[in-house]
Amino acid sequence: MTTQRITLGKVSDVPVGRAKSYRAMGRDLIIVNTGDSLRGYVDWCMHMGGKLRCVGEHFECDWHGARYECTTGQAVPDTAAPEGANLEKIEIVVEGEEIVYLYTPKKSPWALE
């Protein structure tokens, strides 16, 4: 499978402690600036599929309050997030001032090769 490079936006669009949503390759994505680096995840709550927003050091789902750590994507205990759940990470790189999403399609389990 060939990796595609998709420019999402500029680093300056995502200030420290904030997140920004993008749509690329048919996926909703969320990029967060944790101060030490940018991290990317699929913008999909593991509880019931709601969208996420950055609240301090956590992502929070608007639907039921499920929370996930911004630095790891791990579910925060005692919230609506399923125990042990992790947000799906995406691979991003910073090239100059650009945030680039490195998208590699997943092979279908039904593929013949």
What does this protein look like?
The protein is mainly β and 113 residues long. The chain is 0% helix and 42% strand. It has a 4-stranded antiparallel sheet, with no helix packed on it. Strands 1-10-9 form a 3-stranded antiparallel sheet, with no helix packed on it. A hairpin with a 4-residue loop joins strand 3 and strand 4. The model has no long low-confidence stretch (mean pLDDT 94).
Give a quick summary of the entry:
The protein has 113 residues and is mainly β.
Offer a few descriptive terms.
mainly beta; 113 residues; flat; 42% strand; four-stranded antiparallel sheet
Taking the sheet with the most strands, its summary is: 4 strands, antiparallel
User: How many β-strand runs?
Assistant: 10
Oligomeric state of the chains? single chain
Unreliable residue stretches: none
Task: Evaluate the radius of gyration.
Answer: 15 Å
Residue share in helices? under 10%
Question: Beta-strand percentage?
Answer: 35-45%
Structural class: mainly beta
Count, helices: 0
Distance, first to last CA: 12 Å
Q: Within the largest sheet, what's the order of strands?
A: 2-3-4-8
What is the H/E string? EEEEEEEEEE
Give the mean pLDDT: 94
Q: What overall form do the CA principal axes indicate?
A: flat
Protein topology:
Blueprint: E1 4-10, E2 19-24, E3 27-33, E4 38-42, E5 52-55, E6 58-61, E7 67-69, E8 89-90, E9 92-95, E10 98-103
Antiparallel strand pairs: 1-10, 2-3, 3-4, 4-8, 5-6, 6-7, 9-10
